[in-house]
Structures are given as C-alpha cells and as structure tokens.
Write a structure and sequence with these properties.
Radius of gyration of chain A: 27 Å
Order of helices and strands of chain B: HHHHHHHHHHHHHHH
Distance between the termini of chain A: 62 Å
Number of strands of chain B: 0
Distance between the termini of chain B: 6 Å
Shape of chain A: globular
Strand content of chain A: under 5%
CATH architecture of one domain in chain A: Orthogonal Bundle
Oligomer: heterodimer
Structural class of chain A: mainly alpha
CATH class of one domain in chain A: Mainly Alpha
Number of helices of chain A: 17
Strand order of the largest sheet of chain A: 1-2-3
Order of helices and strands of chain A: EHHHEEHHEEHHHHHHHHHHHH
Structural class of chain B: mainly alpha
CATH topology of one domain in chain A: MetI-like fold
Number of strands of chain A: 5
C-alpha cells in the first residue's frame, strides 16, 4: 500500500457522530411527529439554503477527517517500509497542488508577481524588482494576457460547475416526481415555481439554487486555483485558500464534539435534579451554580493552562505532532463542554419538574416503573426538542469562540489550522504598507458563511421544533396554493 | 428586605467555597507544583534544585492540605491550601511571578477597565434598546425584515473582525484617533472612544434581535391595545408601556453583568493597549502566571454572585408585584 491510514481520535469521534446522525434520521423517519417537525424545517427556504451551505462545509470537514501517512520512497538496500511522519488527509490529497506550490512569501490574490521587491541579477546588472511568482500565473508568457486568461478560466470553471450541478438537479426532480407520483416535467415546473406546487412544499428550489451558486462559485475558484493563488499567499508562501479550507474541520469539530460532553452531563444531571428533587436537586443546583459563577473565559483559561502542563510534561504520549495537536483540540472541546452544560441543564431541570407532574408520568410511577425507565421512556422524548434546539443554537457560538480563544492563546495548538490561528497570524499584517489584507479577508468570508448558515439553520430548526414559535410556521397559505 | 439580602449573602459563602475548591483542585491537584515548575523553567534548566527553588519562591513547597510535620493548628495552616486558597477570602492573593502584589495591581487596574466598560455598557444598552424598539415600531415592513437580517449578519461576525477592522479603518486609514494606548484622567477620552464604539457595534446584533422578540411578545397584549385606544401615540406606547413591561427579562441578562464591568474586556483591552484587568489577565495567561489567573477566577465569581443579588433586587424596582422576603 502506498499509504497507511491513521485514525486520530477526533476523526473517530466525528465519524461516530455522523453515524449517530444517520441513526437519528432513521429514527425521525419512523416517527410521525418528528417527521412533521423536520418537514416544517424543510418548508423554510432560508433554512434549506443554509443547510445546503452547511452541508458543503461538512463535506470539506469530513474529507479532511480521513487521515493517512504517505509511504516514504524506499531506501537503498533496505526492504523495510517506512511512512512519513507528516499526517495528511484526503483533502490534502485532493488539494495537493495548493499545498505543495508554495511561494517565497506574501503575494496578493491572483497575482503574478511577488509582494516584496527582491534583488535580481540580470546580465551582470543588479536591480531591485518584483520577481515573478514560482507558481501564480507562471504559465503566462505575456502578462497583458492575465485578465483574458482569468476570464477564460472563470467561464470554463462556471460551466464545469453547472455540469456538476445538472445531474444533481435532475436527480432531485426525478425524486420529487417519484414521491409525488407526477410526471417528470411537472416536477421540474414545481421546482422552478414552488408557489404553484403543492400546498406547503419542501423548499427544494432553495437547495438547488444554493447548490447552483456553490457549484458555479466553486468551479470558478477551482479553475483559478489551477494556475493562481486565489486568496494569495501568507508570510511563508502558503496558499491562503488551502489554509482556510483546512480551518473548516477545526471549526466543525469544536462546534460538534463539544456537544458530546455537554449533552450527557446536562441530560443526566438535569433529569435527575428535576425528577428526584430534594437532596439530589440541591446538590446538582449547587454544582452548576458554582461552575456558572466562574466567568467562562477565566475557567476555560485556567483549565487550558493546566491541560497544557499535562501535555507538555508527557511528550511520550504522542507519536506525531498531529496526534498532539489533536489531543489538544479534543481537550479544548472537553473543556468547552465542561463549562457550557450548565445553561441547558437548568432548562432541562425546570422542564422536567413541569413534566413530572403530568398524568402519564404519574401513571408510570403508579405502575412502579423505575426512575431510569421513566427518564428514558417518558421524559427524554418530550425534552428532545429542547436538546436539539440548544445543540444547533450553540454551534455558531462555539465556532466564534474558537477564534477568540485561539487569539487569547488558550485555543487550539498554534500548529493546527483554524480560523483563530489564521486571524492571529494575519492580524499584524494590516500594519504593513501596502496592506496585506487577503488572509483576514479569506478567514472573514469563510467564517461569516459558516456562522451565518449555522445561525439561519438554527432559527429554522427552532421554528420547526419549538411549540412557542410555531405561529410563524403556520402563516397563511400562499396565493394560488388553494387552486 | 434586609433579611433577604443577608440570607443571600450567606448563600454566597458555600458557592465561594466551591469555587475555591475547584480552583485549588485545578491548579494544585490536577498538576503537582513540580509539573508546573518543570514547565515554567523549560526543559533545559530543570534540575531538582531549580524546581525546589521555584516552589520555595512561590510557597508551593509545603504539603497540599495536611502538614503532618507541624504542630497543633499549624498542621492545617502551614499548607498550600491554607496559604493560597483560604487567604483569598480576605482578598489576599499573594504575589505575581514578577514579584508585585496582586491585590494592589488589581485595585490599580480597575480604573481603566471601568473607564472602558462603563460607557460601553450604558451606551450599548441605550443603542440596542432604541434600535430594537425602532424595529418593533416598523414591524412587518421591509425595514423590520432588513433590520433583522442585518442583526443576524452582525451576530455572525467574530468580535475579532470588528476590532481589527475598526482599528484599521478609523485609526490607520482615517487617522482619527490613536491606534492604542491609554492616558489617565480626561486625556483618556481619545483612546477610549474607538473601543467603546466598536464593542457597542459588535454587541448590537444578538441583543437587539433578542429584545425585539421580547417587545413583540408584549405588543399584542391587552394593555397595549388599551393604551392605543386611549389615543396615545405609537412611540409613547412603545417607550412608556411596552418597554416598561419587557424590562424583567431584559434586566435578567443585563444587571448580572454590572459588577463584572470591573473585570474589563479581555479582547478590547489587549488590542487597544489599555492597562486594565482584562489585559492583566491576558498577560498572565500568556506568561502562565498561575497565581494571577487564580486570583482573577476568584474575583470574577465574587462579582458574579453580587450581580445575581443585584438582579433580584432590581426586580423589585421594575415590578411592584415582586416582594423579596
């Protein structure tokens, strides 16, 4: 084999979470009330559009979570197979061009010349000039051709993006035609003009429109990235587009793995406190009041400092640098989880106290059903909407806090690609003359897209699941739907 | 009322003991002082003597919680736990790694922190509430939708970008105010105006959206209709009636942060070079000065508990139905 697969702990957890989501989806399909709630989410075109954007981010993050170590070229006289110490991912393999084509230092987006002057010797005469980049636009003989080249590539990229999109759209139309038992062509019309379709349609048109934009945009960027640095390069000449795509995984991990700690703690303690009451309630309330009263950032800082001491004093635990930064990332998720379960726990406790007085719980009690069974069978399903809403609502906050924590110096390992480290490295470049703005701009655009999509999707999920917000979903049917 | 306050203050004691225990476990049990010394000294200079010296300088060379060698009460008092944790209750935090007294440093730095946090708080509250009421005034129009969209976009942008972008535009491109720094007294104004505006702008998105939902919940109630039926103008209805009744949920979120204003803001202070408690904390984190971080954790929780008490008291001010006893 040319490579050796390597499973980092965060990869395993992330894929386990994906499997969990699939199981949850199956579960939701089987239960009518859950299916209806998700349908309400699907009716929101903003929600579906943002879900599409999120799906694109998740695809990037998942690709980046398949790690391997490439095999080193065999050495003379030894038959032993050796693997490189550097850990790559499937995304790295896909973006090998971006990763390997490094410049010397800064270069502007789509530039052909370096950012700084260099002394060049030509025909025995030394002069200071902006040297051509090793990679960016290196294929151009005549520099005046650059705009034409860019336009040509953009067109080709957009077209190939559309080609990628077309089968997607066709399969969507086919699926709709099958599920509604209508002609294929009618389904296409429904997709194009949703107002004339069934009464309250799932907003597939929003999905397809967003997918079209993503495909065209991605196609253009991919076509440019073939020969240019689309977002420029950073101080050591790395492609910023590559760095920012690599940051997506970190953001997703922080946003999702944290819930693995938050949920069990909040659910178990919240339900226990609410159901048992008395002594249990007092103890659990005391615990979360104490944790709550320590300002979040300071508690995180204290815990991260201590974690750093542990990691630094035990270098023998980690075989590669990737494993060490991975352990640090996991520890950060763990710490963020430990400091953020209190809010959800309090809500769950209050809700449990309300539910436990209801007849069906009283009946279960009277039949002698144990506490654990009551919690799992009777209380948990009725609290799930709160849990789900809180998980999706917290996601964007966690992504944002990663950037801030990395800036303060208590975030992920500085060798790990993340939006925080990207911003941190680019922060001082604004004081240069001329300004190096592109690293910040790339981080800004990607982060805004991710967090905005997460926020909008969270709103859609809340509207769909929270009974208090359903007056919004139950708005009057659109015109033409009656006929 | 008095009895209520006293009782609440008594409740605070077990919570502070809990905070104290957590910090003690975090800083001394999870990692032994030896580990901390090894990390602070760096790999090269680690010798048993150096570690002992480092520990002795900081008073970490005693047993953690029980000194078997000492006599009488000293068995409890001549320990790290007593010296480092119990003394915090008397606001005696010991010395930082650079040898300065932490308590003195903290009192000195509260001023600049407050100078930036207080205007931010007051202005921020005023601007967000007015903005939210404006959105409610134009409810169900394009202006309202546009405002909400703006809020969602604004809350999706990291604080870091507000600070970096604001600093770059205002200080560097337009040259309006100094990039960073601080001066005591009235001169501080020109240093403070930008961070205050930036943090108000950065916080507007999420809170204005939340206040808007609070106001919208109130606006369909009977008393609002009565007020309109009396012929009051819509603005008067909003500011006099709706705002007053939406005050309770707003206060829950707002009053609790008032004491925390002393702590300053980590990000703003370090970006703008303001010598407050926020930048003190950041410096301590970067220098891994455990004593300072521990002190800040303790002070932070004391202030939070005071904030909770103030919240309860403020309810009596806005809602005559609430009686504390």
């Amino acid at each position: 084999m040319n490579f050796k697969p390597l499973f980092l702990w965060s990869d395993l957890l992330l894929w386990a979470m994906v499997a969990g989501c699939v199981l949850l989806a199956v579960h939701c399909r089987r239960h009518d009330y859950l299916r209806r709630a998700w349908r309400r989410v699907g009716e929101s075109s903003v929600g579906m559009a943002s879900a599409t954007v999120l799906a694109a981010f998740i695809a990037v993050g998942l690709l980046d979570s398949l790690h391997y170590q490439p095999r080193l070229p065999a050495q003379e006289g030894s038959s032993e197979v050796q693997y490189a110490p550097e850990v790559l991912s499937a995304l790295d393999a896909l973006l090998a061009d971006l990763r390997l084509n490094k410049e010397k230092t800064y270069s502007a987006p789509l530039a052909t010349h370096a950012f700084a002057r260099e002394t060049v010797e030509r025909d025995g005469v030394q002069s200071r000039e902006f040297p051509r980049l090793r990679f960016g636009g290196a294929h151009l003989q005549d520099l005046s051709q650059r705009e034409a080249d860019l336009a040509r590539r953009a067109l080709a990229g957009a077209l190939s993006g559309l080609l990628l999109w077309a089968p997607l759209a066709a399969s969507a139309a086919w699926a709709i035609a099958r599920s509604r038992r209508i002609a294929w062509r009618v389904a296409c019309c429904h997709l194009l003009r949703p107002a004339q379709a069934v009464e309250r349609p799932v907003a597939w048109h929003a999905v397809l429109l967003t997918a079209a934009l993503l495909c065209v945009g991605g196609g253009v960027i991919a076509a440019w990235a073939d020969a240019y640095h689309v977002f420029g390069t950073d101080k050591v000449g790395q492609d910023v587009l590559y760095l920012s795509l690599k940051s997506v995984r970190t953001a997703l991990l922080i946003g999702t793995l944290t819930t693995l700690v938050t949920l069990p703690l909040a659910l178990a303690l919240g339900l226990l406190a609410g159901l048992r009451g008395g002594w249990w309630d007092d103890a659990i309330q005391y615990l979360y009041t104490v944790l709550n009263s320590i300002p979040g950032v300071l508690l995180i800082a204290a815990m991260v400092l201590m974690m750093q001491v542990i990691i630094d004093t035990h270098p023998e635990w980690f075989a590669t640098a990737a494993e060490r930064s991975d352990a640090r990332l996991l520890a950060l998720c763990f710490i963020l989880g430990l400091t953020s379960w209190t809010g959800l726990c309090r809500v769950l406790r209050a809700e449990t106290m309300k539910l436990r007085e209801l007849d069906y719980v009283q009946a279960a009690r009277a039949f002698g059903v144990g506490d654990l069974r009551i919690m799992v069978r009777h209380l948990l399903p009725n609290l799930m909407h709160i849990v789900l809403i809180s998980v999706v609502m917290d996601f964007s906050g966690l992504v944002l806090s990663e950037a801030v924590l990395s800036y303060i110096g208590i975030g992920v390992d500085s060798s790990m690609n993340s939006f925080g480290t990207l911003i941190n490295a680019a922060r001082l470049e604004l004081s240069r003359e001329p300004v190096v703005w592109w690293s910040l701009a790339a981080a800004f655009v990607l982060m805004l897209a991710l967090v905005l999509a997460a926020n909008l999707f969270a709103d859609a999920v809340r509207d769909g699941f929270d009974p208090r917000f359903q007056w919004r979903a139950r708005r009057a049917p659109r015109k033409g739907a009656v006929a | 009322m008095m009895a209520y306050i006293v009782r609440r203050l008594l409740y605070a004691i077990p919570i502070l003991i809990g905070v104290n225990l957590i910090t003690f476990v975090l800083f001394f049990v999870v990692n032994s002082p030896d580990d901390m010394a090894r990390m602070q000294l760096g790999a090269k200079r680690v010798t048993p003597e150096a570690i002992e010296k480092w520990k002795a300088e900081r008073g970490y060379d005693r047993p953690l919680a029980w000194n078997a060698e000492a006599q009488g009460l000293a068995r409890l008092t001549d320990t790290v736990f007593f010296d480092k944790s119990i003394r915090m209750f008397a606001f005696d935090f010991g010395r930082a790694d650079d040898g300065r007294d932490i308590a003195l440093e903290i009192t000195g730095r509260m001023g600049p922190s407050l100078a930036i946090a207080l205007p931010t708080f007051v202005l921020g509250l005023f601007v967000t509430i007015s903005f939210a009421l404006l959105l409610v005034f134009f409810r169900n129009t394009a202006l309202d939708i546009g405002g909400v969209v703006l809020c969602v976009i604004a809350m999706s942008i990291s604080t870091l970008f507000y600070i970096i972008g604001g600093q770059y535009l205002v200080s560097k491109v337009w040259n309006l105010v100094p990039i960073s720094g601080y001066a005591p007294g009235l001169d501080a104004g020109k240093f403070l105006i930008l961070p205050v505006i930036i943090s108000v702008a950065g916080g507007i998105g999420s809170s204005a959206r939340w206040y808007r939902t609070l106001f919208l919940e109130e606006i369909n109630k009977d008393y609002v209709r009565t007020a309109r039926a009396k012929g009051l103008s819509e603005l008067r209805v909003l500011f006099r009636h709706v705002l007053k009744n939406a005050m309770i949920p707003i206060l829950t979120g707002v009053v609790v942060v008032i004491p925390m204003l002393f702590m300053g803001s980590l990000l703003l202070e370090s970006f703008f070079g303001i010598p407050g408690l926020g930048s003190y904390t950041i410096d301590a984190i970067n220098a891994q000065d455990f004593a300072v971080v521990r002190a800040m954790v303790f002070i932070g929780s004391v202030l939070y508990i005071i904030g909770l008490l103030l919240t309860d008291l403020s309810y009596t001010l806005v809602d005559p139905r609430v009686r504390l006893h």
